[in-house]
Design a protein that fits this description.
Arc Repressor Mutant, subunit A; five-stranded parallel beta sheet; 8 helices; 20% strand
């Protein structure tokens, strides 16, 4: 695997200096900036493998950088924040962050989260490649073409992120059975992932908004309270 590149965006020069040195010592290529608008520009031009994004920065706040970047890319985004309130953590997930870590944090914990997210990207790519010979599967108005890594709804292509696509496949492969939240985290985010488990609920809501006729009254992606989620099987729709 080629050397992975990390975009480190934080306006605290001391933190940047320390993290850049430690990450480079672990073999990563680090691109550092202390400005939010510049971070977005770098992400667009350099296309790093992962983004470490501070919340409070001049030029553009990390929240806005995260929102904009997620609308354009599936790159893993880890939010760095000095604020540990639940509202801030949920907001990061809502805007598309893959994970967050609250300052002060240990470098060992940060490194574990970075590696877990990078492994997830590799596994997703391998899964897509392994499905090259499979024919599209029909589920009501949905057609799932694993060979093309593509979902269509009533003939129109639905734009899904890699994580949303992997989540849908995990439910599809269960053939109508309930999949526990913990199992979805293991399958989609990886067994060593250490982020907030509520990210599953956030991604499920995004999937419903893209795949259901009425997201508030889902007919395909169902919640089984206290357990997890299930996707209705093709036999149930016949």
């Amino acid at each position: 695997m080629d050397q992975c590149s990390i975009l480190l965006a934080d306006d605290d020069e001391m933190i940047v200096d320390v993290l850049q040195h430690q990450l480079e010592r672990e073999g990563f290529q680090v691109i550092a900036t202390g400005n939010g608008a510049e971070a977005l520009a770098i992400a667009r031009t350099r296309q790093p493998d992962l983004v470490l994004l501070d919340v409070m920065m001049p030029g553009m706040q990390g929240w806005e950088v995260c929102r904009t970047l997620r609308s354009e890319s599936d790159v893993p985004i880890l939010m760095l924040t000095a604020r540990g309130e639940e509202l801030d953590r949920v907001l990061g997930l809502e805007l598309g962050a893959d994970d967050y870590i609250v300052k002060p944090f240990s470098f060992r914990e940060l490194l574990a989260r970075i590696r877990a997210n990078l492994r997830r990207v590799v596994l997703t790519a391998r899964s897509a490649a392994a499905s090259d010979d499979e024919k599209p599967e029909q589920l009501g108005a949905l057609a799932i073409d694993r060979r093309r890594h593509q979902i269509t709804r009533q003939g129109d292509i639905v734009s899904l992120t890699q994580r949303e696509y992997a989540l849908l496949l995990a439910l599809l492969d269960a053939d109508g059975a309930v999949v526990r939240r913990g199992d979805l985290l293991d399958q989609v985010w990886g067994e060593e992932w250490v982020g907030d488990p509520r990210t599953v609920d956030v991604h499920m809501r995004w999937l419903r908004e893209k795949l259901e006729e009425e997201p508030g009254a889902p007919q395909l992606l169902l919640t089984v309270r206290g357990v997890g989620y299930r996707l209705v099987s093709a036999n149930e729709l016949r």
